[in-house]
Amino acid sequence: xxxxxxxxxxxxxxxxxxxxxxxxxxxxxxxxxxxxxxxxxxxxxxxxxxxxxxxxxxxxxxxxxxxxxxxxxxxxxxxxxxxxxxxxxxxxxxxxxxxxxxxxxxxxxxxxxxxxxxxxxxxxxxxxxxxxxxxxxxxxxxxxxxxxxxxxxxxxxxxxxxxxxxxxxxxxxxxxxxxxxxxxxxxxxxxx
Length: 192
Hints:
The structure is a single chain. By secondary structure, the protein is an alpha/beta fold. Helices cover 23% and strands 23% of the residues. The protein has an eight-stranded mixed β-sheet with strand order 3-2-1-6-9-10-11-12, sandwiched between helices. The chain has a two-stranded antiparallel sheet with strand order 4-5. A hairpin with a 4-residue loop joins strand 10 and strand 11 (184-186).
């Protein structure tokens, strides 16, 4: 399937989830993340949930990161350049919603991209070799391309992978893992 068809399919599937299902599945994803061998790292980039899109609720991941005393990095998007600016999440961070209902930091301490060690990546769909489909603007592909090669990229999804995505481009950055409520997919091997 191509990216457009996959976007439509998974937006529809997510729209059919109840609030309770989203919460239960998101909590299961957060608990499964604890099985990953990533917790020795310090700087974790986390996307903030767009509730209107029925995304994975990352509040549970945020609680884990805070409990483990990690440095949490959140982004602000520039829709003219399609670039993200990364800010350290602190007690003083103020947020506002942009026109796409994304909570973004107003300002704060900028974190250079080379500091980021783990990225939790939003997605609509992904395939069995780690290609992902987002909303189509390319923010995360641009951001991930600037990260160090050893930066760990973890997708979060309510669903299992597609066999493959037909129209992957050279600028698409593959995931290292995708975590679902029931599975950790490591791209090379899968843990059920």
